Amino acid sequence: xxxxxxxxxxxxxxxxxxxxxxxxxxxxxxxxxxxxxxxxxxxxxxxxxxxxxxxxxxxxxxxxxxxxxxxxxxxxxxxxxxxxxxxxxxxxxxxxxxxxxxxxxxxxxxxxxxxxxxxxxxxxxx
Length: 126
Description:
Blueprint: H1 2-12, H2 17-24, H3 30-35, H4 42-52, H5 56-59, H6 69-76, H7 82-92, H8 96-123
Helix pairs in contact: 4-8
């Protein structure tokens, strides 16, 4: 399913799969495995989803809705602060690899903040 979705997405953009993969730093030899149903690693799925601006679930055929869940959540969110809007606008201008790096950092920092918050709750200081 993944390979077929990639083919369709590339066709819609008048692009070929090989140059897209090369541009993302993904080995083009992977397509043979994908045709047989083997799935790429999570980091490669993120790069592909970001590049095509679709969800990973869409790439994997788990849904036919292309919109990324974060965009869907943002659309449902009534008001964003000016800073949040600037962050989103800036993020959308980044290339897929930079988006991946930013998301990795955000998840890492959020995890740290959550662990600190949990520690404070247990100590009774929160």
